[in-house]
Amino acid sequence: MQGQTRTSAVAMTALAVVLSAGLAAACGGDGGGGPEDQFIGRWFYEPPDATALGSTGFTMTCTDPIFSAVFPASTPTPFLIFQSLNFEHGELTSLVDTSGNCNILNYNVKGNSATVPNPDPYLKDTADPTPACLFQFNLSDTNGYPVAAFAIVSPGPSWTFKMLPDKTAGGARRAQLVGSATAHLIADNGTPTGAISTPDCTYAGSDTFFRLTQP
Fold it and tell me: What SS3 string covers the chain?
């Protein structure tokens, strides 16, 4: 199982590199004024607490003993991954988020909501076509030194980016990212495989975004 997960992670990471290098320029669809156009552009999240840097409505929780000390299930830890979203027209899906925060998630649009398709059409011929994105961050070792860590975030069916009817005071469109995802954590512990979450952690919550740019 771990071998299959690592194979999927490698395939997904390679895909992210390819996409970040050229997909944004190659994408665009026909731009025919479909429902996806309301999502096109760069969105920035509105911190739930304007006085707290990095505040977010999303939390990470783990039951794996290696990671539960940092992300205890009893006290969900606020954990910001999606500071911004940059939606462009996709080639195989309605939208692609090319913000670079968590490379890379595809979305399909229905009405005023966008959801992540499963299986991911770009990974349909791989061993594990589960949609996922890769987020890099740092943890600290027992001496307080930074340790490289990665989260492979796999959104579940509830993961949705949906338009909100109200706008900001300045008139910008607003939307909400809400839902739950599986988070497969890997941290550098000096071994060839690293420390791997077993079972995986849960990333869930909601944040509100406003659109800053559009094509």
Answer: CHHHHHHHHHHHHHHHHHHHHHHHHHCCCCCCCCHHHHCCEEEEEECCCCCCCCCCCEEEEECCCCCCCCCECCCCEECCCCCEEEEEECCCCCEEECCCCCECEEEEEECCEEECCCCCCCCCCCCCCCCCEEEEEEEECCCCCEEEEEEEEEECCCCEEEEEEEECCCCCEEEEEEEEEEEEEEECCCCCCCEECCCCEEEEEEEEEEEEECC
Query: What's the pLDDT tens digit per position in 105-162?
Result: 999 999 999 999 999 999 989 999 999 999 999 998 877 788 999 999 999 999 999 9
Least confident of 6-20, 45-59, 159-173, 174-188: 6-20
